[in-house]
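[audit] Reproducing an earlier prediction to check determinism. Same input, same settings, fresh worker. If the tokens differ from the archived copy the diff job will pick it up downstream; this log only records the rerun itself.
[audit] input (280 residues):
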Amino acid sequence: MAERITAPDGATIALHTTGTGPAVVLVHGGGVTVDEYRRLVARLANRFTVHRYNRRGRADAPARREPYTVDQEIEDLGAVLAHTGARRVIGHSYGAFVVLRAALRLPLDQVVVYDAPLRLAGRGLPTAFLDPAEEAIRAGNLPRAMALVGAGVNPQDAASRLPLGVQTAICRLFLRTAIGRTMAALLPMTLLETRQILAHDGPPEQYAGITAEVLLACGAKAAPWYPEVNELLAAVLPRARTLSVPRCGHNGIAAAPPHLVDPIADFLAAPPPSTPPQPH
């Protein structure tokens, strides 16, 4: 049974809670619901009280306000933090972007981001796929749009080197699965989220005000621009370290193998240092 809490705009957030121990809030990525993280939640729940909620516009979440901006996400996360007393947060993919933007404004002690899709001074998240993917959606061709996004953000995958028509056919088959249908239904929303990432393109130093301890994690089998983003951030964040997780791709955090979960749990379990961060 979800607990109902109120967002600053009066909307109702359905908060799902599992486990015992220090409070941790999970912010999910784009194209999915929080249900995709069942394994992660189960493997953290013996050490932490894990709070999770669906971001707006999906499952049991309220509708988004229009026009959409990431500020809505930060307001909702702030309401969850205030209600739970949590000062530890995990963010995946677009959820990682939300968490990093929120860490500039909200009281957080420890932050874990996995595969943060940032755009920093023109580096990081690719952008060439965005216009043609939006055009494909307007034309009603969701499989083509999914293929364009997949190839654009995952250049390391062998499938991204196949002809676009073949990739589109694969996506058409993928749409027969439950997760494929969910991702397709959320794709327009995912592209709007991508526009928010691009709207915050700028120097890495824009994140230098984050005072929380930050674990910048990425999958070793994910796209090569994730570690590039992490290195750019690590150079400016006062309390940051990087972690490349072997044998894991972009969705590794949802699969939650022990060699991914254990270092994240250890990081979150350690008490934050009492010494103030030193300026760069």
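[audit] rerun output stored. Observation attached for the diff report: The longest helix spans residues 178-199.
[audit] end
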